Amino acid sequence: MSLSIRQYSWQLAPRAVREIRERVFIKEQSVPPALEWDDTDEIADHFVGVTPDNTPVAVARLIPPVAGRSGYASIGRMAVLREHRGNGHAQALLRHLMAIAGESADQLILSAQEQAIPFYQRSGFHVCSDTYDDAGIPHKDMRCLAPEAILQADHRSTPTILGADDSTWPVETEAEYSNLLDTLVGQARQRLWLYDRELSHDRYDRSRLRDLLSWLARHHRHSEVRLLIQDDGPLVKRRHQLVQLMRRLPSSIELRVVNPDYPTPDEPFVIADRSGVGYRHGFDEPHGWFRFDAPGHAKRLAERFQQLWETASPSVELRELPL
Questions:
Q1: Taxonomically, which superkingdom (predicted)?
Q2: Closest to 313 (Cα-Cα) out of 266, 272, 261, 236
Q3: What domains appear along the chain, each with residue ranges and CATH number?
């Protein structure tokens, strides 16, 4: 059954928005009314999904970047009436929100009930927090950093989920590379090893990537971030966010420069945990691919990386720079 989706402000939203949320959250899930209705409704866009006979069956709200945190769009209060579940309405509504929010936001976030996590993973959202209680229900935060790519590949069952998606994601542009790289980094829990000629400012000197690496280093005690490059000159000449982060977290993030006398590959790559891989065909281009569940590739590249790492040395120039 097809679903038509209509958008409203809170002031002009039909009664169905309140009625569906009350039936699902307050009556069915026992969420206290004082927690269900908040000031965020006033600044959010509200969406109602209706069936061909004009029956409202699903709702959600979207907080755009202007009203929320800079660069973020927040999806919330998604609800489908019990008798209309199992018809694909929730996914249709979520994909609609992703398409709208992706036009202005560099990442989409939501708070998911634990039982709903597999549903959101089927649309490319990955977990990015520990479990917490919200209205007596266990929740986890989830985010999507590559909505455009995911919407173009809706045939994949768990798109971009580390350890679950074994399909190949081709990369043609710098934007595609950055979004898929950040999606990979954002899911790493044990190790993140990156090899490139240099940490170019255009590609790596980004606040979102810095924040993802910082979260990995701070929230996982045994995580290991290794950055292996051929040329540290650009890092010395101009301030770089990853260098500043590395100097604040020296026990978790380490950078080395390869031994010039040791053979080095001409293709940069990144490894996340034991299964995620990103690969470019050359230093000067974004063209390449990502795979989020490729343990064989990850193992071979990790062995190559380890050989290079053991013969590499810390950057003397960076060590001598003032804090």
A1: Bacteria
A2: 261
A3: 4-144 (3.40.630.30), 168-320 (3.30.870.10)
pTM: 0.92
Exposure string for 191-206, b = 16+ CB within 10 A, e = fewer: bbbbbbbbbbbebbbb
CA distances from 220 to 85, 263, 299 (A): 37, 33, 21
Indicate the SS3 state at residue 247.
helix
Separation CA 75–CA 189 (nearest Å): 25
* Cα separation values, 25 from 66, 101, 137, Å: 27, 24, 11
User: Among 250, 264, 101, 129, which Cα is nearest to 196's?
Assistant: 264
d(CA 79, CA 28): 11
3-state SS, residue 114: helix
Q: Residue 115 corresponds to which amino acid?
A: Q
Residues 6 or more apart from 247 whose CB is under 8 A from it? 323
Q: pLDDT of the chain along its 323 residues, tens only?
A: 689 999 999 999 999 999 999 999 999 999 999 999 999 999 999 999 999 999 999 999 999 886 545 588 999 999 999 999 999 999 999 999 999 998 888 899 999 999 999 999 999 999 999 999 998 899 999 999 999 999 988 778 899 999 999 999 999 999 999 999 999 999 999 999 999 999 999 999 999 999 999 999 988 778 899 999 999 888 888 889 999 998 888 888 999 999 988 888 999 999 999 999 999 999 999 999 999 999 999 999 999 999 999 999 998 777 655 54
Cα separation, 125 vs 158, whole angstroms:
9
Tell me which residue has tokens 């080095």: 264
Query: Could you tell me how many residues make up the chain?
Result: 323
DSSP 115: G
